[in-house]
C-alpha cells in the first residue's frame, strides 16, 4: 500500500501527452495496490487511475487483464475501461516498467457491508460471470488446490509458529480439497479476489469492481465461494453474518441461477476458498518482516472461516424457501 | 509516504456527516505526508483533503497551523482553507487522533522548475510573508542554529559513516552560523519548508502552497534562503541553476523588496538553510533502517548546496542590473 516510484509533473505531463485525455491538472499518488504504484490523475476533461506495475505481475498477462476491463465495460459491467494511447496501445513502458491508464470510478469500499450491499455485489458478480464467458483471453488460475498445498509445504514447520492449530487444520482439510475438487463445473473468467476492498459502493449500488489482477478462467461457483467468504463474516472470521451471506447468494442467483451441481459443490468450494487465503496469507506472513510497513494479513481470519464452512455444510448455500 | 490508518466507507461517512460538505462519493488514501495519513475525499459538492495526525505534531500546534491556512486564504494566498465542522471546530478527534478537513487545491509538483515557475513561487512566497505578518498565532522555530548543532551532536561519531567529508563540513560552518546568526531581521510567519513538493503548479501559475507543518515565526529572509536552496539546484545539489535562482529572487522582490540588511544577511542565511537540511537529514538517515519503506533523503544533497553558498558569497542574491 504505497507508491514505490516518484513521478513528477514533467514525467506525468509527458506521459499523459501520449493519450487523448486533455491536460494534466492534478496527480496524487494513492495508497492502493500491493505490488503496483497508483496515481489518481485529473485532467481538464476527466479523472483516471494511472497504474505502474512494479513487480510480480507478468507483462505477458497485461493484455489479458486490460482487455478484460474493456470487454466487461462494453458489456455494461461497472468496471473501469482501459484508456488506449494515441497509437491504440493498452499499456506503455516507462523507465522499463509497464504502465496503464484506466478510467476512474466513484465509490467507497465498505468495512461492514449491509445485506442490501451484499445483494448488489452478488448480482454484480453474476453479471460479471455472464459477461466474461465469451471473453477470448485466457489465463489459468495459478492458485488452485495443489498450489495451496505447495505454499503450505514451503511454510513447513513454521506454520505452527503462526498459530499452533494451523498445521492440524490444513492437514485435516487439504486431502479432501485435493481429492474431491470438482473438474466439471461451468467455467468463465472469474475475479477471484472480490473482497470489499475491490468494490466501490455508492450507498447500496455497486459503483465499480476493481483490481482484476487475480482474474483467470475457473469455476464461476468458486468465485461465488471466494466472494461469500470475503463478504459474509466479521473481519476476524469469528462470526458468520447470515443475513449478509444469504443476501449475497440471492443477489447472485437473481442474475445467474446456480445449477444443482454448482450448489452441491459450494460447501467444498467454500472450504477451498478459505484455504486459498489461509495458504497465501500464511506464506506471506512468514515471508514479511514483522516491522515491515506493509500490513500482514492474519491467516487465522480465514482459518476460522474454513472451520465455519466445514461445520455448516450446505446451510449457507441452500436456496431460501 | 503512506496511509497508516484504515478508514472504511462507514467511518468516513460518519466523519463527513459532522461537516456541511455534502455526501461522500469517493475516498482514496494518498501517499503524502511523512507523519500524517491523508485521504482525497470527494463529496457530491467538492473535493477535500482529510488529514489524520499520526504522530510528531503537537496537538497544541494545530490551532496555529489550521488558523494560518484560514488567515492566508482570506488574504488571497493560494492556500487551502480549513473546513470547520458544524460546531465550528477546525479539527476533531477520531480514535484518539486529531483529524482536519481542508480544501483540495489543483496543481502538480514539479521536479525541474523553469525560471517562469520559480518567479511565480518567489512572488507567492513574498505575498505569503506580507499576508502572514499580522497573523496573531505564535509558534517558535524549533529548528534554529543551536537545534542543528544539537542534532549533529546526537549523530556524534556516526556522521562520518554517511560521508567522510560531513564531520569537517559541519565543523567548518557551524561556528559561523552559531555566532553570526542575525537577531534583528524583519520577522513574519514563514513556511520554512517550501520545497517543490509543497507547491502545486498549474503550468507557470502557483495553484497551491501546502504542508505548513514547519511554519513558525522567524526571519522572512531565512524563508527566502530555504526556498532558494530548495528550488535552485538539481536534486543532488551538484549544479546551481542560476536562471532559476535569479528568477526566484526577482519574483520575490517584485512583491516584497528586500531591505539592505536582509540582502546582506542572505549568504549566511543560505548556508544556514542548507545546514538545517544537512542536520535533519543526517539525523533521520542514521535513525531510519536501511530497508525501511520510507525513502531516506541524502544529507549530502544539501552539503553540496552548503559548499556552493560558502563559495558563491553574495552573487546569487545580488540585485540584477
From TrEMBL, chains A, B:
Residues 27-258 form the Aminoglycoside phosphotransferase domain. It comes from the Bacteria. Pfam families: APH. Its EC number is 2.7.1.39. Pathway: Amino-acid biosynthesis; L-threonine biosynthesis; L-threonine from L-aspartate: step 4/5. GO terms for molecular function: homoserine kinase activity. CDD domains: HomoserineK_II. It catalyses: L-homoserine + ATP = O-phospho-L-homoserine + ADP + H(+). Keywords: Amino-acid biosynthesis, ATP-binding, Kinase, Nucleotide-binding, Threonine biosynthesis, Transferase. Belongs to the pseudomonas-type ThrB family. This is Homoserine kinase.
Amino acid at each position: 500500500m504505497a507508491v514505490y516510484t516518484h513521478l513528477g509533473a514533467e514525467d506525468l505531463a509527458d506521459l499523459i501527452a501520449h493519450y487523448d485525455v486533455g491536460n494534466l491538472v492534478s496527480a496524487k499518488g494513492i495508497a492502493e495496490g500491493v505490488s503496483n504504484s497508483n496515481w489518481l490523475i485529473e485532467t481538464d476533461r476527466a479523472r483516471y487511475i494511472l497504474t505502474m506495475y512494479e513487480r510480480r505481475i507478468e507483462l505477458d498477462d497485461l493484455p489479458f487483464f486490460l482487455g478484460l476491463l474493456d470487454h466487461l465495460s462494453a458489456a455494461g459491467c461497472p468496471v473501469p475501461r482501459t484508456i488506449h494511447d494515441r497509437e491504440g496501445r493498452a499499456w506503455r513502458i516507462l523507465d522499463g516498467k509497464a504502465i496503464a491508464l484506466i478510467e476512474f470510478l466513484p465509490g467507497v469500499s465498505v468495512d461492514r457491508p449491509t445485506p442490501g450491499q451484499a445483494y448488489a455485489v452478488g448480482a454484480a458478480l453474476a453479471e460479471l460471470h455472464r459477461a466474461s464467458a465469451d471473453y477470448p483471453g485466457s489465463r489459468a488460475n495459478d492458485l488452485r488446490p495443489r498450489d495451496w498445498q505447495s505454499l503450505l509445504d514451503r511454510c513447513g514447520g513454521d506454520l505452527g509458529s503462526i498459530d499452533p492449530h494451523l498445521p492440524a487444520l490444513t492437514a485435516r482439510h487439504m486431502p479432501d480439497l485435493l481429492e474431491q475438487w470438482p473438474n466439471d463445473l461451468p467455467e468463465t473468467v472469474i475475479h477471484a479476489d472480490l473482497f470489499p476492498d475491490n468494490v466501490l459502493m455508492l450507498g447500496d449500488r455497486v459503483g465499480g469492481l476493481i483490481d482484476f489482477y487475480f482474474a483467470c478462467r475457473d469455476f464461476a461457483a468458486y468465485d461465488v465461494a471466494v466472494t461469500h467468504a470475503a463478504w459474509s463474516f466479521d473481519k476476524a472470521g469469528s462470526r458468520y453474518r447470515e443475513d449478509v451471506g444469504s443476501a449475497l447468494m440471492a443477489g447472485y442467483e437473481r442474475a445467474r441461477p446456480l445449477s444443482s451441481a454448482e450448489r452441491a459443490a459450494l460447501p467444498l468450494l467454500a472450504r477451498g476458498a478459505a484455504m486459498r487465503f489461509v495458504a497465501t496469507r500464511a506464506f506471506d506472513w512468514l515471508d514479511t518482516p514483522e516491522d515491515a510497513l506493509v500490513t500482514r494479513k492474519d491467516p487465522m481470519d480465514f482459518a476460522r472461516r474454513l472451520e465455519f464452512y466445514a461445520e455448516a455444510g450446505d446451510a449457507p448455500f441452500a436456496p431460501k424457501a
